[in-house]
Predict the structure.
Amino acid sequence: MDIIKKDSEYIVNTYSRFPVCITSGKGALLYDDAGREYIDLGSGIAVNTFGAADGEWAAAVATQAAKLQHTSNLYYTEPCVKLAEMLCERTGMEKVFFSNSGAEANECAIKAARRYAFKKYGDESHSTIITFKNGFHGRTITTLAATGQDVFHTDFGPFTPGFVYADPNDPASIEKLAAEHGCAAIMFETIQGEGGVLELPEETVNAIRNTAKKYGLLIVIDEVQTGNGRTGKLFSYMHHGLEPDIVSTAKGLAGGLPLGATLFGKRTADVYTPGTHGSTFGGNPVCCAAAISVLSRITDDLLREIERKGEYIRGALEGSSGIKSVSGRGLMLGVECGRPASEVVTDCRARGVLALSAKTKVRLLPPYCITDEQLEKAISILKEVCAK
Ligand SMILES: *Cc1c(COP(=O)(O)O)cnc(C)c1O
């Protein structure tokens, strides 16, 4: 069967796929239908936390699937409760709502921020949410509206109103927007992933903290990509000592199965009441069993390993020929090369290394289990491709 031809015949044409059909993998190695081996520096976009077909993860999934795969949220099940308890104990957050994707986790966060403000003011006067230019929050109509990039704001209008965009490099723009609009919350990624692996400057993080306090705004952090250990802390806000009111996550949480989570702090824990939000699949036992297995392995030792591997990549690339800069933290890195990122990604693939791009950067999101040997080999190939 010609997969690539049939894909173009039957699958809606929304993706610019690479001309590779992946059939299996083990850890940081992936194999295509011609039997070629690749070193994976993308983890399925920060999803396959412990790489492909990890034994412990697969066993957790298979065990739960053989017991019970789904009940609906009309009944209690153990895995989602256990996972919520783990998430709260490790973050200090108080309650969790489970969904199936990053966009849904953010939709849940946005609804909660609006409902919080509606209850506080008794009307819609403080429904505006400040987000950031160049951010990314998802593909639904509302999360596209939250995404501060003009390229996403065409063709599908009308978009959900009530979002204004601060400039990540102009800390004063945050308070200016808070003063001009009736706001409920400030929502952001600490490292803009799709936007090019750009970390918010510390002055911007401070301005968020100060403006939120002065105007009574909720702090909502989109940890869909940065969460679950990716940056060397369980959640990236922990690098900045932030105390969020709402945290959304997804991607790597269940290590390869669809699961979104929205975490609520003291002020927001009781915003939702019966009937005000829901999801058919949310908190699915198989996905939650997968996430329990993932989360229980994101230990302090593993987080140190993530930092160490990230430092290795940085050290190997910085100052190397054809490499201008390296951004990001832990195993979420952006590499500005002298050559266009798409060419670098293509040449790497031809040499058996799968990298990603984000805007002008080559983006690296390797699985945490990548071995030093695999990493050295992949990074030396990336260096050679950049030096070309
Ligand atoms: C990927 C991503 C999303 C969207 O997640 P989906 O699971 O594709 O809906 C939202 N926010 C950030 C920061 C992301 O990286």
